[in-house]
Amino acid sequence: VTSFPTAEGLRALDDKHSVFCERLEDPLALEQGQFHFSAKDNLCARHFQARAGSRILKGYRPPFDATPIRKLKEIGGLLIGKTNMDEFGFGTFCTNSGFGVPRNPFDIERSCGGSSGGAAAAASLIPEHLALGVSTGGSISCPASFCGVIGLTPTYGRVSRWGLIDYGNSLDKVGLLTRTARDLERYLPVISGPDPKDPTSKAQPVLDMRGEVTTVAVPAEALADLSPDVTASFGEALKEMGRNGIKIREVRMPSLRFAIPAYYILATSEASTNLARYCGMRFGAMNDEFDQGFNDFFSQTRSEDFGPEAKRRILLGTFSRMVGFRNRYYIKALQVRQLIIREYRKAFEGCDAVLTPTMPFIAPRFDEIARMKPLEMYQADFLTVPPNLAGMPHISLPCGYSRAMPIGMQAVAPQWAEGSLVSFARTWEESFHYRFPEAIA
Amino acid sequence: MKIGLEIHVQLPTRSKLFCGCSTSGDAPNSSVCPVCLGLPGSRPFLNRQALEMGVLIAKFLDCKMSERVWFARKTYFYPDLPKNFQITQYDSPLGTDGHFMIGEKRVGIWRVHIEEDPGRIRRVGRSGEEVALVDYDRSGIPLVEIVTAPDISSPAEARDFLTDLIIELRHLIGVTGEEQTMRVDANISVGEERVEIKNITGLRNVEKGLRSEVNRQTKMLAVGKRIVRETRHFDEDRGVTLPGREKEFEEDYGYIGEPDLGTYRIGPLASSMTIPETPLVRAARLSKEWGIETKAARQIVLTDWALADLFEMLAAKVGGEAAMSWAMGPLSSSWRDLREKAPGLRDDIIGIIVAVTSGKMTDSEGRMRISALSSGQEAAASGGEDVGDLDSLIVGLVDEHPEVVRDYQSNERAANFLIGQVMKAMKGRYSSKVVAERMKRELEKRV
Questions:
Q1: A283 touches chain B (CB under 8 A)
Q2: Which of A33, A117, A354, B166 sits CB 3.0–4.6 Å from A76 for a disulfide?
Q3: Complex ipTM
């Protein structure tokens, strides 16, 4: 968009927007069994660019559909668009996109959350809309919480990653953002299942949608460092659950605090190798300085087209896996991941899910975000990173409202037990009324 | 002098290591897909056959086999590398601490692992206006890498090692095109410090490159200069090694586990595998079992596996020495013609040679008959049809020809007529010497 002259650009944008709105408004456009869905921009689909929020992939049109997109199309899904995101998933507020910043539908001065910010905004704004999101370290839970929708992140390996542009391959998970549990019931079984094109999806047991959540455990460590409105809403939600007959237990999970450093080392180590291919050879603008050596040529394209957060994570990840640091950081982070998995397993001995707030605060204003340091931003993910690091399925549900902004809670279930989270969501929405912003269409 | 080699050999699978693309693409970039092009969102899936071949090689090299293996990303930026990382094995090779024998010499094998090949750069256009084009047909071709201990003590020995290794691998897994595609990194130290010569293609160049590097290091040491640890390249045209253009420090590949591929339990696979007998192992066995020279045994086995089969059958009947001289003489000289017919003619050939060695046929007759077999005159073959008993044939003939008995009394040569008749009837099953003896004995009775 930025390369168009302004007037022409606006006209083009306006055309696109009206086509989009017509499509949404005209129920006749949908035949029996058809439905609309959107996909986060890091999921490849034919006929669409797949830019993963990065200018380095501007203009890239993949020649194949990501498996979850293919599966949704096969049952009548119409892909209506790709949703904006932090560059390659690197962000908590969707402010790191190469293509503008999506606004929160509840308050356009506030963030949608990230990195699946566009997906959460679409699910929040458009009734009956299914948005495919992707979570590496909380990128579904966070925007779901900020935009007041349901965000389900399945177990690592449940949904094929074929066609997902990698951030951290051992952490990336494709999931769903919607307004209702009914959509999860309908579409989770569709996108799940083994896929020969993604070996990590092949070991999964059959998806069981019958599980229940009757006891939840709340780790005391999760309740520190919350803003008062989040603490209050979460407390109310616990009371409501108690009235619904759900047993609530307190647990200790002291290792959760190691999740963020371990996550950033593993995710950026993998990311720094995944992003190596974008060098101006076949991906990324080919700069015209052909007289340079290839290293300089690559560096020029990478310097020009990666955003600052991508560069920060490439540097961090490259450093963590260098000789001399590899054992101290990368290998150690792998051990921490095992520690956290064990801690979850222990917690699950007496409960069906571990319950916490999703984010420590409501969606922040953009001016607040601008004043945050990278470490403060990373720290905001302290409740969403642990289940992601452990590969455990989790769901974020709206559980309260403060200053007209939604607040979310997050339930984590044992590996492969995402079915129980869907039934948990169904039960919850029977007793707690969700609010949605007025649709703009 | 110490030489250690890192050898890359293509595994002869039909499809690539991590995708279904054919390994035999013809036109540039004709055998490519999202995986081997490294398109965003694609991911590898392992070709199990390549893994099995790698395991077989590691086991053949008598390595300690890993129980579980996984893959690693070796990250470096190069225009022929689609993902700018190579999927290889780092901290879990298929096997370690093996060895390979060059004759009596033991060469240690440090490790064996499999990995993907990058693409290939082709430079076109006039010098100064060159354009580099990348062909990704090679991207993802499965390779096995074999790393030796620095146990090799001369460039000639390095070449012998590679020659013998390839002979064995060709038989073991059907490696093809070895001369052109074998790529070797050679580490060599004449004095204390070692120098690595990177990416030498082909056996002859390995020897040449090492020789020129030995000369260079020897000359430097002779005038009291120090050898610097470095990476060099072998310039095939000029026949010398040149310093690499790489930076001074050693490259840090920042290995991490390949998260898209799981771990593979190869322990049970490795222990259930039986290693078929390879040519040089067979040659060593033949030499020992039948007391023939290793060189001769090697020549027989390398001429053809089926010739060695024939040798073993012959040796069981006529002994190693005789079997060897037949196998290396008349049989190998006409082996090209015999080869395809060999299975059907095996008994005939053995029959002829047994007849010769037991004196029932002359050596030259035997050779003639074998050459007749090879040229397709199967009628000349013996042993197939029943030619009856020699003695009763002689008795019958002598009875029929009393005039011969009469003439024989005055002239022993009269027997030749009957001997000729017998030879004809017996189709060469008995040597003329034997027939003549028996004929004389019969005639003497009647005189």
A1: yes
A2: A33
A3: 0.91
- CB contact (8 A) between residue B41 and residue A162: yes
Express each pLDDT in B290-334 by its tens digit: 999 999 999 999 999 999 999 999 999 999 999 999 998 888 888
Please give the pLDDT value at position A120. 98
Beta-carbon separation of A326 and B255 below 8 A: yes
- pLDDT one-digit tens code per residue, A245-263: 999 999 999 999 999 999 9
B402 pLDDT tier (thresholds 50, 70, 90): confident
Identify the residue with better confidence: B162 or B228: B162
Model pLDDT, residue A170: 97
Among A67-71, B218-222, B328-332, the range scoring the smallest mean pLDDT is B328-332
Q: Can you give the three-state secondary structure of B151-178, one letter per residue?
A: CECCHHHHHHHHHHHHHHHHHHHCCCCH
- Give B82's contacts in chain A (Cβ within 8 Å): 277, 282
User: Active site includes A40?
Assistant: yes
Look at residue A289 in the predicted model and tell me its pLDDT: 80
A124 classed as catalytic? no
Comparing B270 with B383, which gets the higher pLDDT?
A: B270
Contact between A279 and B84 using a beta-carbon 8 Å cutoff: yes
Q: Please tell me if residue B189 touches chain A, with a CB cutoff of 8 Å.
A: no
| Tokens 């586990």 belong to residue | B257
Task: Give catalytic status of residue A115 as yes or no.
Answer: yes
* Whether B75 and A323 lie within 8 Å, measured CB to CB: no
Distance of alpha carbon B192 from its chain centroid, rounded?
Answer: 35
pLDDT at A415: 97
